[in-house]
Amino acid sequence: MAFSQSKPIDLNPKDTVEYKQSYGLRLGVDLSRIITGALDDNYQGIEFVADYRLTQNLYLAAELGSEEKTRQEDLYNFTTSGNYIKLGINKNNYANWYGEQNLIYMGARLGFSTFENTLNNYQYFDTNRYWNPDDFANGSDTSENFSGLSTTWIEALFGTKFEIFSNIYLGASVRLGLILTQKEDERFPNLWVPGFNKVTWDSNFGVGYNYSISYFLPLYKKKNKAKKKIENSNEPVGPPNPKERL
Length: 246
Description:
Helix content: under 10%
Distance between the termini: 47 Å
Structural class: mainly beta
Number of strands: 11
Strand content: over 45%
Shape: elongated
Strand order of the largest sheet: 1-2-3-4-5-7-8-11
Largest sheet: 8 strands, antiparallel, barrel
């Protein structure tokens, strides 16, 4: 008896293996603002975070939040409250094992915040301390509100997101921001901006951070091609190694 194959034997197998990875939306909340608000009576805030996977390593990202903070300076006490939004991208630089979707990324954001300042009280600075050796002279305890304020800035950031349970991720990031434009009152400058952090007199730079927990909602799967180089075409090609990094 003889047996013949209906198809010719491929002596040059293809060196490309296709994998399917999940694409979708990741939604979460910033834990640092919640914890700070619980420990500090002078702060309340919340921030929602999101990212959407565009390609294998590129993500659209956004943060939306609200903050209120009271600060005591040498001569005055003020409260800033308002909302902000940040939009940008994240570029993943981490080579995942097959089946993982962890991130070590660099990114950029464009931020915009609208807020108001309330000057709660202030004192007069006086170099003559004869009548008030221990403190400055009292100015006013009547609060004054400055509304309609806004700030626009850009951020460069470095962060990580790692899966701790199925579709649940812990993340952290550090950010360096640069103020582009500001709308402030002539009588009282912007000293703290929601979403940006502290503003100094002699610099438009600011530093921020966040610690997030988020849930990944898979919407569809897409093929990612991982090329595998065959050194000796005479050797049989087995199934793809599940430990291979993508």
